[in-house]
Amino acid sequence: MNSPLNDRKAALMGMGDSRLRKEDARFIQGKGNYVDDIKMPDMVYMDIVRSPVAHARIKKINKEAALAIPGVLAVLTADDLKPLKLHWMPTLAGDVQAVLADEKVHFQMQEVAVVIATERYIAADGVEAVSVEYEELTAVIDPFKALEKGAPVLREDLAGKTEGAHGKRYHHNHIFTWEAGDKAKADVAFSAAEVTVKQDMFYPRVHPCPLETCGCVASFDPVRGELTTFMTSQAPHVVRTVVSLLSGIAESKIRIVSPDIGGGFGNKVPVYPGYVCAIVASIVLGRPVKWIEDRVENISSTGFARDYHMTGELAATKAGKITGLRVNVIADHGAFDSCADPTKFPAGMFHIVSGSYDIPAAYCRVDGVYTNKAPGGVAYRCSFRVTEAVYLIERMVDVLAQDLKMDKAEIRSKNFIRKEQFPYTSAFGFEYDSGDYQGALDKVLNACDYKGLRVEQAAKRADPNSPTLMGIGLVSFTEVVGAGPSKMCDILGVGMFDSCEIRVHPTGSAIARMGTISTGQAHQTTYAQIIATELGLPSEVIQVEEGDTSTAPYGLGTYGSRSTPVAGAAIAMASRKIHAKAKKIAAHLLEVSENDLEWEIDRFKVKGQDAKFKTMKDIAWAAYNKPPAGMEPGLEAVHYYDPPNFTFPFGIYLCVVDIDKATGETKIRRFYALDDCGTRINPMIIEGQIHGGLTEGFAVAMGQQLTFDAQGNIQGNTLMDYFLPTFVETPKWETDFTVTPSPHHPIGAKGVAESPHVGSIPTFTSAVVDAFSHLGVAHMNMPHNAFRVWQQLQASGVKS
Amino acid sequence: MIPSVFEYHAPSTVSEALSLLGQYGDGAKLLAGGHSLLPMMKLRFAEPAHLIDLNKIRELSGIREEGGVIKIGAMTSETALIDSALLQKKIPLLVEAASLIADPQVRNRGTIGGDITHGDPGNDHPAITIALDAKFILVGPKGERTVAAGDFFLGTYMTDLQPEEILKEIHIKPFAPKTGSAYCKLKRKTGDFATAAAAVVLQMSGDVVSSARITLTNVGPIALHAQAAEQALVGKPLTDASIAAAAAAAMAICDPAEDLRGNIEYKTAMAGEMTKRAIRLAATRCK
Ligand SMILES: Cc1cc2nc3c(=O)[nH]c(=O)nc-3n(C[C@H](O)[C@H](O)[C@H](O)COP(=O)(O)OP(=O)(O)OC[C@H]3O[C@@H](n4cnc5c(N)ncnc54)[C@H](O)[C@@H]3O)c2cc1C
């Protein structure tokens, strides 16, 4: 391309450009507009009375002392919500959840009552003045114990119900059984196998801990009968539908606004009791009601992640070719099944568990179980249990390699789905769209001098004076994101499409409105870049708006790395509708037929005649000024995109650790992350997303865990204990990429935000276990904090 | 995370503060940097009706050398300790320890006096001041009295400070020439308290250890003075064996509480490991 063309292209700052994030100016200057920044005239404040115990019957709730405090306006309990039938609410997973504890509490920190007061501090005093009499019951914390014969009935409201939302319940604390793959075929593979390995592993309960906690400002206008709620939601349109179904208010009279959101990671997908209570309180009082959680409430009661007890089995030949996979999971969902998976998938996309490998026979089974812990499960950059699945298969491949005394890289090469096998249908029925795993693996092994690292490791192991153990972790993961095709995926019956509406203004700038909502991903920046390239308008003059249900088209929101795969496709398709109309206008203006025109960066020109052209800007003006006879004026389009398939980003991660033999501290010496997310829209933002995801993965693998004592008291629910790494702890990240575009996506993009989280966690485990592998250790459960690693050092007899 | 109602007072002299303390008695709490007190108030573990803020009292902060003694005002911030050229030169252990406390936000507000009087065995200054054989100047309605650091800490959140008293100053002798010191602190992350930590002050004459002070943080109800560990070193050349013996003696007095940082066994072992590391590091600094 000659340079004027390059200049014109560069001026658009379209796809491939690392333009700066449009959002950052306001965030850096403290000019963001978060829910807690919203103040409304006459606004009052809500605070929540929470259960100090995990399992108890409520004997009595005494409100009088609280109501006597000047400024306390109301105290609401389940009994007050009952006449409105709002004391329980349906969950997105087909269960019901108590809005305020109804006769019984099911987990520590459960919502028992709310206090509304004229000031935030008075609301807190009111909470302290509410006294609740509890009769304690035996708490069940361990899901295996929950399934024992004589275990207490946790959900008395479901007593006697042998059918749940996802089929048979075989025990009173059982939620569902979900199976995928072919059990008989897998069993045959195992009985015929030369080698089999089996490993139990626990993926602990963790919490994404977004910097901004959850909250809302609910404002019901009794005169107009309209409800406006500003809310920390990753899916405002779905929330509007839920609120309408619950309250009976017409969807058209409900406005849900997600303003700036300070991190979501799936924690802000569910509809929480706090939202419902604030809305009810606003309807009751006729005043705006603000509710903002504190950190302890956020960590203790809102959507956690994982809590999967998994058993993996591989069958293989002696040469290391995997012939079968079986997986069994006990999934601890807590007190209510409030996951937010697509309706047909109570364990999400867990069946991506065959990973990047060509495994002919596979079967998995997941059993959901109730315990006396906070509800949740789908959160933390995990795209519907993909994190758990990737962890399992990557661990199992390492376990098999160790059993066969084979190198980790070699066994992966032996089992990869090869480039020429795509599109590839897995034993679980996914159709993998594209990939080049071996190419990516070779690139990483070369970049890190993998052979050299193994030589160094051998020398360290031979030296008794070495103060450290060295470990090398390797992972080759495949994700499934972009939910999803409506033939398979829906939430509450609404297909998981997403949407975009673009209006090009007369002077050649534009606004795009989307059904998604950024929680930090910089949609305002990247979405504009797609339009810039598609329409030839500079991204600088393209405004992107999302999150307000009164202005944006309906969409399913942002989670599961779906924004670019689904909404990004909607943008391209809407742009192409505009493009097609623009071409007609250009032909009219240039007085030629459409067939004589060609598109070049920002203009239509008459084929072969550089001087005869109309830019998109010219065309925009004409669209409002002199459209061709018979054509509607204006230049806008809407598109609802229903993806034909998921997308399958992948990556190869390598990590080197040095473990202090005396303290158990693990130093991450090197972490190399190669990601393939297909077409790259803004490389700088991709890098930022990867750094963030790797840092979260590091936190999960090395330090985060929500534990409970035998009575169900949650441990470590403040930031003093809960590990959020700062810059001091965070390793240096090295990133790399390959580009394998998705063949079915309009721009070839696959999604990236979750990959680094999903892929890095097993990499850290792989590295830590590798440091002990010569001592016969095949697996260690997370978190790999100093104390736990030190216990392994003791168990393995390592002397410092 | 919202405290209950309290009244706020901001006296500008010590005597004013003392009379407010006398007036409100048990219902009052002194406020220094607030980084221990305010979290407890927000959790409503502490609900003082009156907060007496010491931040406006000029005479309570600053570092000076007077009559061969370094005098540090109780309200001196951790950051001021770290930035003090005088301390860097004459009591580097204090600077090293202060740098390992929490994070910059906490160090900018948190004070040495608050860190000491809070009586938390997880705080670093108790072990440091014992290692330095510091003297605390307490002022009350009846005037001043002096207590040695080693006698001040009575139990978790319990000290010799009386309800009507204020800690005014910390007095420490500068290091004699060729004194080496080190503070080794194992923590899970920035902003965390020690899993275990050891402070060592060492003097060598030739190859032989002529004096040693060893103290431990967060492995007992109060900061521990490991005297048997000191005896394992003094009068002998520093060898792997003597260092191991000192570490074993330090571990023998540990009585840590199990928490998410580790169990008793781990914390005790880490106290030993930190002791070893601090002895070795201090020895390299005896120059
Ligand atoms: C995240 C975090 C991490 C931390 N990590 C560490 C750490 O690793 N090591 C460490 O040592 N500390 C740590 N701390 C505690 C911190 O150093 C506190 O600042 C210190 O413990 C208390 O000092 P303050 O000036 O903030 O006192 P305040 O919190 O204001 O007061 C503490 C107590 O001392 C009393 N008091 C204060 N000054 C006086 C005085 N002059 N006379 C009499 N009584 C007085 C108060 O009444 C109160 O009871 C941490 C704190 C936080 C928030």
How many distinct helices of chain B?
12
CATH topology of the largest domain in chain A: Aldehyde Oxidoreductase, domain 4
**Span between N and C termini of chain A?**
62 Å
Helical residues, percent of chain B: 25-40%
Largest sheet of chain A: 7 strands, mixed
Could you list the spans of chain A in which at least 5 consecutive residues all have pLDDT below 50? none
**Number of domains as seen in the coordinates of chain A:** 3
CATH fourth-tier homologous superfamily of the largest domain in chain A? Aldehyde oxidase/xanthine dehydrogenase, molybdopterin binding domain
- The CATH architecture category of the largest domain in chain B equals 2-Layer Sandwich
Placed side by side, the strands forming the largest sheet of chain A appear as 3-7-1-16-13-14-15
**Strand residues, percent of chain A:** 25-35%
The figure for the number of domains of chain B is 3
What does this structure look like?
Chain A has three domains: 3-32 and 497-641, Aldehyde oxidase/xanthine dehydrogenase, molybdopterin binding domain (Aldehyde Oxidoreductase, domain 4, 2-Layer Sandwich), CATH 3.30.365.10; 35-137 and 213-261 and 268-301, Alpha-Beta Complex (Aldehyde Oxidoreductase, domain 3), CATH 3.90.1170.50; 305-483 and 646-795, Aldehyde Oxidoreductase, domain 4, CATH 3.30.365.10. The mean pLDDT of chain A is 97. Chain A is globular, with a radius of gyration of 28 Å. In chain A, helix 16 (563-590) crosses helix 17 (616-625). By secondary structure, chain A is of the alpha+beta class. In chain A, the strands form eleven sheets. Chain A has a seven-stranded mixed sheet, with helices on both faces. In chain A, 28% of the residues lie in helices and 26% in strands. Chain A has 20 helices and 37 strands. Chain B has 287 residues and is of the alpha+beta class. Chain B has three domains: 7-52, Uridine Diphospho-n-acetylenolpyruvylglucosamine Reductase, domain 2, CATH 3.30.43; 61-172, Uridine Diphospho-n-acetylenolpyruvylglucosamine Reductase, domain 3, CATH 3.30.465.10; 181-284, Enolase-like, domain 1, CATH 3.30.390. In chain B, 35% of the residues lie in helices and 26% in strands. The relative contact order of chain B is 0.12. The model of chain B has no long low-confidence stretch (mean pLDDT 97). Classes of the chains: A alpha+beta (800), B alpha+beta (287). The A-B interface holds A 120-121, 124-125, 128, 294-296, 662-663, 665, 703, 707, 715-716, 719-721, 723, 725-726, 728-729, 785-787, 790-791, 800 and B 1-2, 4-5, 44, 103, 186, 188-193, 195, 260-263, 266, 269-270, 273. The structure holds flavin-adenine dinucleotide.
